[in-house]
Amino acid sequence: MLSKKPTVQFNGTKEQEKELLAVIHELKDEKGALMPIMQKAQDIYGYLPYEVQKIIACETGIPLEKIYGVATFYSQFNLSPKGRYRISVCLGTACYVKGSGDIYNKLMEKLGIVGGECTPDGKFSLDACRCVGACGLAPVMMINDEVYGRLTVDDIDDILAKYE
Amino acid sequence: MYRSHVLVCGGTGCTSSGSQKIRERLEEEIKRNGLEEEVGVVKTGCFGLCALGPIMIVYPEGSFYAMVKEEDIPEIVSEHLLKGRVVKRLLYDETVKANDEILPLQETQFYKKQHRVALRNCGVINPENIEEYIGTRGYEALGTVLTTTKPEDVIKIILDSGLRGRGGAGFPTGLKWKFAAANQADQKYVCCNADEGDPGAFMDRSVLEGDPHVVLEAMAIAGYAIGASQGYIYVRAEYPIAVERLNIAIDQAREYGLLGKNIFDSGFDFDIELRLGAGAFVCGEETALMTSIEGNRGEPRPRPPFPALKGLFQKPTILNNVETLANIPQIILNGADWFASMGTEKSKGTKVFALGGKVKNTGLVEIPMGTTLREIVEEIGGGIPGGKKFKAAQTGGPSGGCIPAEHFDVPIDYDNLIAIGSMMGSGGLIVMDEDTCMVDIAKFFLEFTVDESCGKCTPCRIGTRRMLEILEKITNGQGTMEDLDKLEDLAAHLRSNSLCALGQTAPNPVLSTLRYFKDEYIAHIVDKKCPAGVCKALLSYKIDADKCKGCTLCARTCPNDAITGSVREPHVINQDKCVKCGACMEKCRFGAIYKE
Fold first, then answer.
1. Which of A47, B72, B424, B433 is packed most tightly, with the most Cβ within 10 A?
2. What is the ipTM of this complex?
3. How far off is chain A from B295, nearest CA to CA, in Å?
4. Where are the alpha helices (DSSP H) in B365-506?
């Protein structure tokens, strides 16, 4: 797993912190509560910067290095923020044999970023994902929660234009 | 009482192709026509034929509307639901015979050979309503077991049925339960593995979305059998619809007293908690999954001790896959003999496959064990589109292998698949045609395992990477024949020395393609050619001078100015400058550009 270093200034609000503390106090005595807490924390902040991990460590008594270890192990925890529109292209087998690799390459070319990055204006971020389970519609990509299936490389421009 | 029901698929496949909007429009139109007292709309789970989504079925006629568009809805409502005239034009074409007669869905190619046990309720009931589940004999098995059967007899029924784990390895489910039951402890756990990570497999997701209660019921039965009072479902966070429906199902079951304290007044307590994965493939491995539920990095642990002795939180634990569990209530209700009457000698019952890739009818199919690949691909799958030739079917995901056409008639079961160098895995079945490069596919799976290797043990962490590097060398045209020996050597090390199944099985995609498609490897190494035309470094784009009209479009499209030629004269690609992006080929309107 790659280390994911935070690159953006942390801008958490008091309300977010209050919400996080409520979650921690509700869950912390359950067995194996760390991951559910981190998942809720990511829902609140959109990502899991050092500052948020530190709050979790202080409140639960779990060492920060363990939290960092868990955060970097699982691909869904993000240490830096994602774009307003999160594009994920499925590179599962069914999509791959139907050409999702070309779609992914085209997006990297169009957006000028590689997988795992975010455009400088914070608009789009691009990731490859492993099977969203819509194999019947392969090849598939998702932008936030919207699924686009039966894609061809030629569809990309029109789809991105919707988010201008 | 409704006179007619419209079932609209709400599985991930159809939701992705817009079934939510279809359903809303349908409800609107029904209201507009004043039919809301007569026609009920039901959001169901997956029908299986995802390629034709969004799908809806109108009962009692059983009319199967495929690829429904929002603008078709008013016609379906006013013609079919109001006037009783089926809109044949919009039906799935296989259900309309030449003489205009309408075929029941069960008699179409796709459904004819299927036998639905695990998917029994998917696409039939509303998964968000516990009463519909109860109406199809739901929770009857749990009630019977709790009130009339001793735990050891429950285990005996499962043992006798011959049910084996559907997650991939095929370990006898009853045996797993028996081991856990034999270990004494103050607390035991039942876990459900819903971390369906194999790319291309989505049967567990469909069960969770289409029939979540069956999983809860089976877990309670398992809990009773082994003496556990707590269950955990570990489900992928990538499956939001499944998570939502599981949450609804758990709340409803608690409300009805089917989970919680003193179920069916039997004195048996059982409750279930949901835990979400966070995107780590290795967490599908049993010990890694338990480590993850405990709140740690999901790294596997050495076995023994096996989970039946020391599993979750160091207590005796059983872990069953979703599809395995979906069979349990049916086995209890219909008996071990009924289940054992289906399938082959050593693999009983049915198996759900996610049929994908280069095949016409992509979707979910449930077939008796022992069905051949030919039946699945040619009959159920409807063959390969575009008149292309079948090359291989990949089963078992990154742990499995590619089955070539010569084994088309082998009856599919656990043992046969292993004998031909693949494995059942969770049931992804990806069809590949002549345009798929087998070396590239091996590389694709190795990239996957390199990415997903947790890094705890050296053979897997480093071995997979070294194997990938060799494959990259070969697909770049720099491989040597010695590389093939090195691949086999590394594969043997990985297989015998890795800590968990992820590393032990990681070489399978390479070994099986080497076994059946060695000529393709040799073509890459010796001839420096990719026969399927996939590996970029070995391709060159050329212009057919006879077909080229000299329109200059390609030259203007080329990002690297590699194409030259005058207007209305055939153009030429400068191979030294060509970056092989394929943009020219996409743009050419005369099909004059080809790759070789």
1. B424
2. 0.85
3. 4
4. 373-374, 414-419, 438-452, 458-475, 481-497, 501-505
